[in-house]
Q: What sequence folds into this?
């Protein structure tokens, strides 16, 4: 039985320590609630709802459906499969680094993966991003064997099929790997390639239905391509919502580049050809397609290739004392970014659980944009969308008041006649504005909708609002 390095055991334990203790500390946000609703429904209806409301393939949701039959649909239960995938990515990363170069390279890559803030973030989300990162990494590990004529083609095919079943953007590394296998090992690789093609073809009708339904429009969300490309690059350095420590992204970027420089100077660049081709090439294809008009670029859609790209600086960190010192510094900086992300409320998900607890008896609640009614009702199941309500208090729940500030005085005018402002409070990344009337007063949806469009700005109010009542 192969010896398991103590460093790998320690890094896997560190990955678990970063991912598991805070798994339920944040409430579910919109996309996670959609996963929870799929998991609570019937299995037969799951596939229909995936086609109707999702922009991802169904495999991860099926896993969640099976798992929640045993564990329920709490925050911890829904997120645990992702956390386990994120933890499992650490030993797989070690295998990739060792297969590319040496045990030291394996430890370096495992360390980067264990503490990387973007990988930690999506290991705590009830979506398929941690699963596709793991499947793509496993596929790349088998690909490294297959491309050298070892028995890895079947493992590559299975892992690639799983990756495609979790997230469509796995197609980018899988396609590049398939092309390399065809060029180098055509005869041995053809059966495996055929299996992956069959899986991809089977997903094509679902993709077309989802695109036709416009369920992928939220990727761009009114943000320009240049800004989203910059955001994706920043997320590779310091996580989903930027650095909790000012300027940390520049330090992390410099340390990662320094690892690549060491690799080139020490004559090890040849070892990085395959991770650069598959990981870097996959990232380049995502960007090129966005420029060409098939624009689905955002932080989470780059997850399939991140661990593979990190192998490039990790190879440099395995070379000599200078490389090792740079690797330790890079991991320390990434760990600081991760701890900042886990502890800074500004980097948390929207606290719909806290908002529901703050409004236990409020008879009328306004949310905008309309899709935010979904997480609000998950935590306050007694609320229903209504065309009108009669209430003495109205609460307006507004997302991201700091990231997207409201215009001065936006909340001074009440959402319906007869009400006056009664103060505001915050719950995570949500602002709750309250309005009260001296007696039960009608609250028509038409007035609420017009107020939302006029007062909350185009980002929140462009689609109008939803009136919820008990």
A:
């Amino acid at each position: 039985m192969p010896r398991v390095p103590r460093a790998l055991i320690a890094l896997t334990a560190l990955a678990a320590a970063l991912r598991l203790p805070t798994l339920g500390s944040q409430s579910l946000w919109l996309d996670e609630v959609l996963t929870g609703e799929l998991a609570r429904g019937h299995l037969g209806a799951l596939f229909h709802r995936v086609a109707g409301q999702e922009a991802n393939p169904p495999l991860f949701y099926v896993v969640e459906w099976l798992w929640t039959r045993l564990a329920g649909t709490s925050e911890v239960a829904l997120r645990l499969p992702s956390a386990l995938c994120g933890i499992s990515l650490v030993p797989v990363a070690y295998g990739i680094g060792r297969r590319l170069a040496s045990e030291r390279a394996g430890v370096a890559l495992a360390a980067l993966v264990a503490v990387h803030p973007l990988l930690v973030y999506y290991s705590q989300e009830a979506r398929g991003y941690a699963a596709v990162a793991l499947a793509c990494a496993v596929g790349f590990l088998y690909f490294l064997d297959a491309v050298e004529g070892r028995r890895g083609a079947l493992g590559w095919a299975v892992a690639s099929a799983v990756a495609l079943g979790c997230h469509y953007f796995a197609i980018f590394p899988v396609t590049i790997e398939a092309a390399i296998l065809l060029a180098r090992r055509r005869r041995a690789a053809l059966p495996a390639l055929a299996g992956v093609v069959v899986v991809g073809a089977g997903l094509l009708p679902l993709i077309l239905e989802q695109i036709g339904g416009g369920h992928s429009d939220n990727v761009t969300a009114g943000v320009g391509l240049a800004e989203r490309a910059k955001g994706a690059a920043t997320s590779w350095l310091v996580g989903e919502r930027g650095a909790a420590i000012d300027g940390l992204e520049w330090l992390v970027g410099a340390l990662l580049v320094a690892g690549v420089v060491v690799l080139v100077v020490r004559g090890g660049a040849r070892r990085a050809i395959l991770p650069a081709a598959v990981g870097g090439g996959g990232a380049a294809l995502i960007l090129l397609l966005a420029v060409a008009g098939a624009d689905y670029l955002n932080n989470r859609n780059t997850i399939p290739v991140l661990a593979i790209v990190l192998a490039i600086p990790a190879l440099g960190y395995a070379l000599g004392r200078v490389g090792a010192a740079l690797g330790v510094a890079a991991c320390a900086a990434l760990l600081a970014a991760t701890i900042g992300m886990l502890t800074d409320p500004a980097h948390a998900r929207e606290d719909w659980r806290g908002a529901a607890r703050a409004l236990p008896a409020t008879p009328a609640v306004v949310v905008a944009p309309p899709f935010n009614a979904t997480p609000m009702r998950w935590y306050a199941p007694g609320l229903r969308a209504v065309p009108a309500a009669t209430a003495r208090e109205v609460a307006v729940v507004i997302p991201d008041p700091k990231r997207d500030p409201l215009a001065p005085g936006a909340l001074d005018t009440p959402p319906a006649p007869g009400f006056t402002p009664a103060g505001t409070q915050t719950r995570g990344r949500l602002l709750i504005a309250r309005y009260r009337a001296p007696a039960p007063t009608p609250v028509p949806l038409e007035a609420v909708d017009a107020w939302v469009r006029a007062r909350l700005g185009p980002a929140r109010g462009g689609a109008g609002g939803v009136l919820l009542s008990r």
Q: What stands out?
A: Residues 186-212 form the longest helix (27 residues). The chain has two domains: 6-344, 352-469.
